[in-house]
Design goal:
Blueprint: H1 3-7, E1 10-15, H2 22-33, E2 35-39, H3 58-61, E3 66-67, H4 80-96, E4 100-105, H5 108-115, H6 126-138, H7 142-153, H8 155-158, H9 166-179, H10 183-191, E5 198-205, H11 208-224, H12 227-236, H13 251-258, H14 264-288, E6 292-296, H15 300-310
Parallel strand pairs: 1-4, 1-5, 2-3, 2-4, 5-6
Length: about 325
């Protein structure tokens, strides 16, 4: 490690597809190195959305401080710019505590925005974004129509998304309207940036069949532990599918069931299928990231030891 790297503030990332045990691994690592955890999940930031987001519980945190969880109501806007600002504030707070910041989650672009300090402002394309969001609300198949527009303009980036991922579709269309060119080319340039941190970027992976089986079991557990009741409660409070938060996996499908648009079995099958597709797209994203250290989650204890080897000196280091 060069002297230049030593001068950089420390930052650890634990990323990977859904249902790979990122949260548990991050907690165990934090306990070993005096770390504090920042959630990089676009849904766990919302209050009242616990079961469908597989939100970590107080017991599972084991006393490790967590940030960017239960910060907003479901009708509040949360985007990559807001995440970046909140995460940077959390990093400063953690460093003031003399602890090591650990970003943990599966939202790749959010992680990238902090790890490589991508420059943008909240106002960039605000009018365009709001116009596209209104289009989705006002047209029955607006999400599909915008996705088709993206697929025409940038088929490479569109192939990494599902049309239900309205937030990312709108972000890409907004960027291209403002700047021209393809969003996939923009992403490639951003990946070439140098991190301002002494960064250790870990990505958990698993055998595909094991991962998919774990996803199915997680969805079944969500249903058994109250997902339907959670979504019904959100609906009673006035939250609806026109909100970005309710477009999250598990919520829109259960809402369709509650609205009589499908059977419960169909809703559950859709959640499992879309979550598997989501995990596949997450892996595609992380494979494109540079300087990633891949870990096999099937050997939890070895992963912890390997991580400590990669970041030796961090326990006593002060950023």
């Amino acid at each position: 490690m060069s002297s230049h790297d030593v001068e950089k503030p420390k930052l650890i990332v634990i990323a990977g597809p859904t249902a790979t045990g990122k949260s548990a691994l991050a907690v165990e690592l934090a306990l070993k190195i005096k770390g504090e955890i920042i959630s990089a999940d676009s849904m766990q930031v919302y209050r009242g959305m616990d079961i469908g987001t597989a939100k970590i519980t107080k017991e599972e945190m084991k006393g490790v401080p967590h940030y960017l969880i239960d910060c907003l109501d479901p009708d509040e806007d949360f985007n990559v710019y807001r995440f970046q600002q909140m995460a940077k504030d959390a990093i400063e707070t953690i460093r003031e505590h003399g602890s090591v910041p650990i970003i943990c989650g599966g939202t790749g672009f959010y992680i990238q925005s902090v790890a490589y300090d991508i420059a943008f402002t909240e106002e960039d394309g605000d009018d365009i974004r709001k116009e596209l969001e209104a289009y989705v609300r006002e047209h029955e198949n607006g999400d599909q129509e915008l996705y088709e527009r993206l697929r025409t303009l940038d088929p490479e980036y569109a192939s990494t998304l599902h049309f239900h991922n309205v937030k990312k579709v709108i972000r890409a269309l907004t960027y291209m309207e403002l700047n021209g060119g393809k969003f996939s080319e923009h992403n490639a340039k951003e990946r070439a940036r140098t991190s301002p941190y002494d960064l250790k970027y870990f990505v958990l992976t698993d055998d595909r069949s094991v991962l998919y089986d774990g996803i199915d079991k997680r969805v079944d557990k969500m249903v058994k532990t109250g997902l339907l009741q959670e979504v019904a409660s959100l609906k009673e409070k006035g939250y609806h599918k026109g909100m970005i938060s309710i477009q999250g996996l598990g919520y829109k499908e259960v809402l369709d069931y509650l609205d009589g648009l499908c059977t419960l079995e169909e809703a559950i099958d859709r959640i499992k299928r879309e979550t598997r597709h989501f995990a596949k797209r997450q892996l595609t994203w992380f494979r494109r990231e540079k300087d990633v250290i891949w870990l096999d989650r099937r050997d939890f204890d070895r992963d912890i030891n390997r991580m400590c080897e990669y970041i030796r000196g961090l326990v006593t280091a002060r950023s």
